[in-house]
Amino acid sequence: MPNGNNKPMGYQLEFEKPLLQLEEQIAVLESHQQQAGHAEDFNAEIKKLRQSHATMLKKTYGKLNAWQTVQVARHPARPQSVDYIGACVKDFCELHGDRRFGDDPAITTGFGRIGPYKVLLVAHQKGKDTRQKIACHFGCAHPEGYRKALSKMKLAEKFGLPVVTLIDTPGAYPGIGAEERGQAEAIALNLREMSRLKVPIVSIVIGEGGSGGALGIGVADRIAMMQYAWYSVISPEGCAAILWKTGAKAADAAEQLHLTARENVKIGTIDEVIDEPLGGAHRDPKAAYEKVEAWIVQTLRDLNRFKIDNLVKRRYEKFRNMGQFAEA
Amino acid sequence: MAQVPGRSWREVMDTSHKADVPEGLWMRCPACEAMLYRKNVEVNLWVCTEPACQHHYRVSAQQRVEQMCDPGSFEPMWLDVSPTDPLKFVDLKAYKDRLKAEAGKVTQPDAILAGTGYVKGRRVTLACLDPNFMMGSMGSVVGEVLTRAIEHAHDSDLPMITVACSGGARMQESALSLMQMAKTSAALARFDDDGGLFISVLADPTTGGVTASWAMLGDVILAEPKALIGFAGPRVIANTVKQELPEGFQRSEFLLDKGFVDRVVHRKDLRSEIARIIDYAGK
Lengths: 328, 283
Ligand SMILES: [Zn+2]
Fold this sequence. Notes:
heterodimer, A: about 325 residues, alpha/beta, 2-enoyl-CoA Hydratase, Chain A, domain 1, 2 domains, eight-stranded mixed β-sheet, about 50% helix, globular, disordered N terminus, B: about 280 residues, seven-stranded mixed β-sheet, binds zinc ion
């Protein structure tokens, strides 16, 4: 990155540069003020800068395009599953392994408490530092990850615990071992079994909802997306490479794929948008955690009203009605 | 004749050469390069007549149902379900123009032909994908028609037979296509709950969201020889892992070896194999 920005964010999105410049100026004035003690002079200037920052933030985030949304969804400082679990889940009891091949760190599963509810949590993990990122394949799960998820969801069914899934993946891992061990079969089985799992299931796309890798833990009674998450049949880069013959057209592909939360609500592929703090979850993670926790608690409360057979039937109808076609 | 040379992903997915089934009296086999008499290949169910080659050509859904069913027994259903352009998708070409261009190549409105028929006297519900329509990709119409077919098999207590031949979920309908994976799999769950028999036949190619949903959910999974079957495309994998892919990677025989298909079946034997599985299942 040019002109090393030592703000906590430490990472620049191109469209955020004017914002980050203001943030830098504010930081400089604040440190001057502390050193020199000319409180009043700088205070006025800082206040003015803060006002323009607030205005600009509102304006910039008020009209993010699809590609900018994808960039926010991938922001390195964006809260990940591990953060949401840390903040929203009490007494998290991680459960490892698929009992068949191994333990894929790209999907975390375990018991936990969210608000008044005991739940079974299933969440993609991208990893925080380089070592974790490599272990998690940057959030791209292997078949053993999907199989682990399914085996723990069956456990939830057995003990009557609702399932909460947090989706954040660029896609399922495209590798030799993944194919040898049946990536397609693992995802397919999850789709079928989640559709008839006899406990409530809620899903939130917290960052990236990349294709079958996302849907593999996303067949739920209620599906929400964070405001700046994306969810689509293919990544914008992948789509651009195939249809535009160049990955450089990813921004165009992002637009055409209608991958934002609002677009997905419009076409009926998800139910709700969870609004993020102004400027994205990474600017105020605590506010994001609170909104996510509140949504999960409220949604589980809603779903608890249904008899389980009725809920499974409604889940079937929900997916049954997805799609748009003409009929004479 | 020499072994079938491995084709690259680009070749496999390239829809422009889908003249796998060419015009004219004579044709050259793309696999073994032998000169073949077209009529003979047609009678041979569009399999190369060179004994050592046996390349299985991609066939249209119409040809497929004719090959699978007792003569004249197939009755198509849901032919009025046709594609729209819900996202007004435009890449180098508009989706609605692509749909128009593809419509002339097939006898049904989208990439699926489904209905009922008889396989060696056994009544079945059959759904076949068509590689000639947007590479057999699954959008809303494919998902809807297949789901109706599964529900029909369920309601009529018939075996459900599918023949997959697809590049995966259709990008131009984005998440709507993605959700067809869940929709079809959910329909299969219900069918399964009530003891329905689902036989999934995988033809070249079966990839992406089609493999990662209904195609891999057969009670019995059959694959035609040397078909490309996988989740991710070989080129994407090669770019990711930056190493040479193993010999025969993602081919039917490879999946058989890894335990993901039950039987690799020559096209001429598909009917009898399906019939005896139906009998074993008591359907
Ligand atoms: Zn040949």
